[in-house]
Amino acid sequence: MMRTNDGGPRRIVVISTGGTIASRWQGTGYAADASGSDVLATAPLPEGVTVEVVDLFNVNSSRMTSAHQLALLRTVHETFADPGVDGIVVTHGTDTLEETAFLLDLHHSDARPVVLTGAQRPFGTGDGDGPGNLYDALQVAASVRELGVLVVFDGRVHAARGTVKTQTLAADAFSDPSAERLGRVGFSRVDVERLPERPAPLSLPDAALTVTPGATDPGATPLPRVDIVTHHADGDPLFIRAALAAGARGIVLEATGAGNATPEITAAVADAVAQGALVAVSTRVPAGPLAEIYTGGGAVDLVAAGALLTGTLRAAQARIAVLAALLAEGDGATDPARRTALLRRLLEGPVRAEPALATGGSRSASAVVTRA
């Protein structure tokens, strides 16, 4: 569905959550404390864009919790209940941005975009990248439709799925190591080079309707625990068993190679599945898909034990997929077999779309409009 340029202003809501883009010097280091309005004041607005700010919370993203992410998910859906809103920009810390973006995307069914951005250099610094990233994110949010949740950073547009933080400090912080970028933004234009691959969206989980970060409600149902366990030389089943003992309902095994571990770990995975836990296998290798190649504790045996391979999703986003499957009671996933089938769909995603070129007004992908 293409949006026509009717000449009217684009109304964008900026939801502020903290991170480096909102961080100021605290005497011994930086921490998030600037308001969304303060952050917005550092960036010029694209022509034809009006902005409203929602200060949701203000945390360094290394302190992000599932409760924070679900509160943001709820706020996004509440914001889009207003048909006059054209798009949403979320300012977020970079450490866990890839997890939040993927959770939002798994539940995003609206044609209007959600764009996450942030900064690698703190608020108010002379060489800060936050203002430019925010300007670009506003431009993208005002320009595209039908692309789901996006990450905009350093002039690049990325799909939420598969995009991870690949640089600790450099300005070009994000990429999908297994796929090309989605597009680019600059000089008041947005060019989309391919369409994202996205599974059918999930319904909003019931937990998102009631959870509040930091609140204690004795009557509330605890959010499901999902742990990540990394395999390495001398790796053993200890932490898989510890996760189960701690009450984990889901485990992501960050395996080696194309999804390989040991016979002992495979046996622990089989035990976890028998106890009703969802187990997904990712890899610590930066790029490429998982594959059933090796036995002797490899992916062949892990799949036979009941684990699911994560395709090109890495551990942090695979954990989000497991969490989403566990929260998806409204999607018929209370039955273990149906829950496993749902997780398989979230991990595999649809077949990758053919590349689509969108430059200026010619050969535009149907999902995008480029505004001069």
TrEMBL record:
Its EC number is 3.5.1.1. GO terms for molecular function: asparaginase activity. It holds the Pfam family Asparaginase. Residues 225-328 form the Asparaginase/glutaminase C-terminal domain. Residues 11-193 form the L-asparaginase N-terminal domain. The keyword Nucleus does not apply. It catalyses: L-asparagine + H2O = L-aspartate + NH4(+). Substrate binds at S61, T94, D95. Belongs to the asparaginase 1 family. This is asparaginase. The lineage of its organism: Bacteria, Bacillati, Actinomycetota, Actinomycetes, Kitasatosporales.
